[in-house]
Specification:
single chain; 544 residues; alpha+beta; Dipeptide-binding Protein, domain 1; Dipeptide-binding Protein, domain 3; 2 domains; 20% strand
């Protein structure tokens, strides 16, 4: 009996210690660890591409931004500052021409000097139809870009040219108040013409077929694996201020696995959501980033005959409780969407009101109305039930959100069946980019230009996954990108009109404005938090 009691006491002590470690994080346990110049970081899923000219999803961009650098970068205040550029652009009186000078000591990871032509080639390659970039429409602010993408002009006519090895001239289609931010995108990172020609069809398919322009060099990535690393780039212009010699990346989709690896000291970061947010709240390990990323239920309007019915789409819009999703399912890791454009990205130039205050909350929950619309849809479609397949990424957030949508739709809309498909991120992207799906959990992280959230649904946009055809949105996007210029009052009204149009027609179902939460080694300092793009920039981080 004495031995039994001792055994029980030891067991209880082990449970208490384990729970304490789980709740308090590993900050105390790390105090005795000798800190190295190696960072063990986490990725939420497989990368679809490391080619900066072809990147289109947030998982890939988070990795591309570690080994590439553009003319400008976004600092801790979410403002563009010079990166490979020596200074901010000189802008002509009409706002159409930018002159940019490069830093004198910039080079690729093979030691070859980066010149203005490398930026010219990068941009021309993006808009060249032969490249097949799925982000070409993101740089239509450059003169002739739209015509080149449509095959009406050659890439050489793009509004960007080298004045010399160290000077660049950019010509815009219209004055662009967000141009410095646009030029901070890794999409516009320099690309070596000679290196691409040398590698041919293999360019970008693996680590050895890529060059770095940023602080780290990608190694060990073969195009499909779930772990790789970065090593410090000795040719980087600011290498002396880059602390880490090596960054190891591990794909971890399951929060429980990530937490276990983090607590064991195997990882210096882990993405967390749901119950883990509650468990770690108040600890120095938990870092939450409120982002401007929209999480939407995307609709395969062109590929599913049922979803062409407006009443079915209205039912899907109204049957979801976004507060419940944000609070109960995501444990506060996000806020309910108010429309297509995230709240907080801009304010009214006249009143100073936010998107939510001025445009109004255009998405809400109304179960009785949802049921009325669904019944009408069934009558119009001549069916008694509908089955839709919902594809989500096979990580914790995707699985839980998918299960929630399946539950509320099947409960609130009797006769609707949702088949869940939890797949790797790369598979989900492939289905969406093939424009052959029913429902997909997707989203959008734009630039600081609010129009990017509207533009994804423009008829010719690669990421118009439902292939919605809308002359109205095309007209509004043309105005936002050209004639509106720097007239913010006019831009605001066009944004309001486009936002309302997309909700009225239920082109997508906005769900939540996402947040990202992580457990991060408290000794890691110097990382930069962004509301757009990569939530946490680790390229200048260091261990204290």
């Amino acid at each position: 009996m004495k031995r039994l009691l001792i055994g029980l006491n030891v067991f209880v002590l082990m449970v208490v210690l384990a729970f304490s470690a789980y709740g308090a994080g590993r900050s105390q346990g790390q105090s005795q660890k000798t800190l190295s110049k190696v960072l063990n970081w986490v990725a939420p899923g497989e990368v679809t591409t490391m080619d900066s000219g072809k990147g289109y999803d947030t998982i890939s961009w988070e990795q591309i931004e570690i080994f590439t650098e553009s003319l400008y970068e976004i600092n801790e205040n979410n403002e563009p500052v010079p990166a490979l550029a020596a200074d901010m652009p000189t802008v002509s009186a009409d706002g159409l021409t930018l002159t940019i000078h490069l830093k004198p000591n910039i080079a690729f990871s093979n030691g070859v000097k980066i010149t203005a032509d490398d930026f010219v080639y990068a941009a021309q390659r993006i808009v060249d139809p032969a490249t097949g970039s799925q982000s070409a429409n993101r740089i239509t602010y450059l003169k002739n870009a739209a015509d080149i993408i449509a095959g009406k002009q050659p890439p050489e006519n793009l509004g960007i040219r080298a004045l010399s090895d160290s000077s660049l001239e950019i010509t815009l289609v219209a004055p662009n108040p967000y141009i410095n931010t646009e030029l901070s995108s890794s999409l516009m990172a320099p690309v070596s013409r000679a290196f691409v020609r040398e590698k041919g069809v293999n360019y970008g398919l693996s680590a050895e077929n890529l060059l770095a322009s940023g602080p780290f060099i990608l190694t060990g990535w073969n195009g499909a694996n779930i772990s790789w690393k970065y090593v410090k780039n000795p040719y980087y212009w600011d290498a002396k201020n880059v602390y880490f010699d090596e960054i190891n990346i591990q794909v971890v989709k399951d929060a429980a696995t990530g937490v276990a690896l983090y607590e064991a000291g195997t990882l210096d970061a882990a993405a967390v959501a749901g119950e883990y947010l509650t468990a770690y709240r108040g600890t120095p390990d938990l870092v939450s980033v409120k982002t401007l990323r929209m999480t939407n239920l995307e609709l395969g309007i062109s590929s599913n005959q049922y979803l062409k019915n407006i009443n079915l789409r209205k039912a899907l819009l109204l049957a979801v409780d976004r507060d419940e999703l944000a609070q109960s399912i995501l444990n506060g890791d996000g806020i309910p969407a108010v429309g297509i454009i995230p709240n907080g990205i801009a304010v009214s130039p006249g009143s100073g009101k936010s998107i939510a205050e001025d445009f109004g909350v255009l998405v809400s929950t109304n179960i009785s109305e949802a049921q009325r619309f669904f019944a009408q849809a069934l009558r119009e479609l001549g069916v008694s039930s509908i089955t839709l397949r919902l594809v989500t990424t096979d990580n914790d957030e995707g699985i839980k959100t998918g299960q929630y949508l399946q539950s509320v739709y099947e409960t609130n809309l009797p006769g609707l069946k949702i088949d869940l498909a939890n797949v790797p991120a790369s598979v989900r992207f492939q289905e969406m980019m093939a424009y052959k799906f029913d429902l997909a959990l997707g989203g959008w992280t734009g630039e600081f230009n609010p129009a990017t959230y509207i533009k994804q649904f423009e008829t010719s946009n690669e990421h118009n996954h439902g292939r919605w055809v809308s002359p109205e949105i095309t007209t509004l996007i043309n105005a936002l990108e050209t004639s509106d210029g720097i007239n913010f009052a006019l831009r605001w009204e066009h944004l309001r009109e486009a936002n309302k149009y997309l909700i009225d027609n239920v082109v997508t179902v906005p769900l939540v404005q996402a947040a990202k939460s992580y457990l991060i080694n408290p000794k890691l300092k110097g990382y930069v938090i962004h509301v757009l793009g990569t939530p946490i920039d680790i390229t200048r981080a260091y261990f204290e």
